[in-house]
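Record passed on underneath.
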Amino acid sequence: MNIKDQIVLYSKNKNLVEIYTSEEDKFSVGYILGLDNDYVIFQLVSVHGLFDGYRIQLISSIKTLIDSSKYLDRLKLLIKKNQLNINDIFNISINSNKKCLMKFLEQVNKHPVTISIKDDKESSWDGVIDYFDNNKVVIDLYGDEYILDYKDVFEYDEIESIDLLSEDNNLDEFLINLDYKEDIINKNDLYCIDMKEDDLIFDGYILSKDDKSILFFDINEYGIFNGFRYELLDSIDDIYITTDKNYLFRMNKLIAKNQTKYYNPFLNKNSDNNLLNILDYSKDKCILVFDNNGNIFEGYIIKLTKNVLYLKTMDEYNYYEKDVEISINNISTIVVDSLYTKDDDYLYKLMN
């Protein structure tokens, strides 16, 4: 069965599918909404089983479609939990004579939203539609700091895909002309934590600091709470208050839109030791533990002694893998209540 026949079949059956556009392992997941001779439209689903936008994809650029895998089984559980429905805003039937690309652009152009566009040379841009006609679309493209500062013309025969409302284009489409509370939910200073390795920078609020470590309320780039982090001070290059007005304006909009509420569960802890406090809070929760040797463990606390953390680790499908012993003195980072581990808590309860 060729790719187009698969698309028609999976669309009729409303199958959730993995979409591969290269020989690499990277793929997207979504439902098929419609197609024509050249393009197919997907409603994308995130790794958390949430709505992740829409994509129009050149059919000839799709290498493989898969409708059955352990990953999809896992994702279907999260989709059910989140009560995610198929929402076809394009209304293009399988046998429609309407051109998917034109219909997609018409729908997108109703709102000043950000899109990501990829051409047949694998180059990508983010921007806002200026105008389009029967042959081309003109995009106002973002430069530095998400400022629209130049235009480019894309002929239809060179467009491989366009993403709308996806995490990959920073969710700016939710921000433009967004009504939000001027009284920002969280009035604490927004800090940046610049790690020494891997050029990692985390945004959020400092909850507690001792001689060796900090506890951190982590906020991801979309303004969503992404867990509590324990980090050793020795692994941090710099901690500073964010002062960039444009960045703060954008983040505060996202925080307000997502109703991200600040809270500190460590305020009334008896211990002054950050590590003991976060481990105590993490009982019965899925956590990520990083050690000083570069190892990463994901799982549930079995037992905690003065010198050793005993952890029941899980594989990528949330099945039991093995028990490990981690020296307390060898722990560099702990993450709990992140978006990923919240999903695992839900799946663990279903599967055990």
